[in-house]
Amino acid sequence: MPRFTPEELQAARDRVVPDVVADGLRVLFCGINPGLMTAATGHHFARPGNRFWPVLHRSGFTPRLLRPSEQQELLSYGLGITNVVARPTARADELSSEEYREGGRLLALKVGRLRPRWLAVVGVTAYRVAFDDRKARVGPQSRMIGDTRVWVLPNPSGLNAHWTAGTMAEEFARLREAAES
């Protein structure tokens, strides 16, 4: 992983991180928004303390631990990655409620176009705001977007101390089992 200066990370605020998507995926994972490390590298969930890649492997979605730079391999497993909000920030709390709601609207359009079997939003708070569902909990949701089922997963950020890598992997595995049936 390259090291970036604070100036290089701040310059990444203007970058667009391309989605890793294809039509008809089994699961489209949806982050909150790109962090500055993700924007600087162009690879989703690139911050070293983020547990997305280890949890994805531990839950059985991937046969080995992928590095963020190997994100395109997800497509071969029927998996993809996008974000609720495209704008990179140092912290998710820099986003406004309006950005989340607009992001939810745009995400619903994207899901309608790509038609994954499952949309997995990583972060219950982001899901609640983006889809105006204040009572949402981690797990499968009653909401569908077209034929796409929705599952809310815990946020894999290292800042989310409520979930361990083990308990996150259990929840991700529940989704994997549902996506395989």
Fold blueprint:
Elements: H1 6-11, E1 27-31, H2 36-41, H3 52-58, E2 79-83, H4 97-114, E3 118-122, H5 124-130, E4 139-145, E5 148-153, H6 165-180
Parallel strand pairs: 1-2, 1-3, 3-5
Antiparallel strand pairs: 4-5
Helix pairs in contact: 3-6, 4-5
Can you tag this structure with a few keywords?
single chain; 181 residues; alpha/beta; Uracil-DNA Glycosylase, subunit E; five-stranded mixed sheet; 6 helices; 5 strands
What do these coordinates show?
By secondary structure, this protein is an alpha/beta fold. It has one domain: Uracil-DNA glycosylase-like domain (Uracil-DNA Glycosylase, subunit E, 3-Layer(aba) Sandwich). Helices cover about 35% and strands about 15% of the residues. The chain contains 6 helices and 5 strands, in the order αβααβαβαββα. A hairpin with a 2-residue loop joins strand 4 (about 140-145) and strand 5 (about 150-155). Helix 3 packs across helix 6 (about 165-180). The protein is globular and about 45 Å long. The mean pLDDT is about 90. Keywords: Activator, Chromatin regulator, DNA damage, DNA repair, Glycosidase, Hydrolase, Isopeptide bond, Transcription, Transcription regulation, Ubl conjugation.
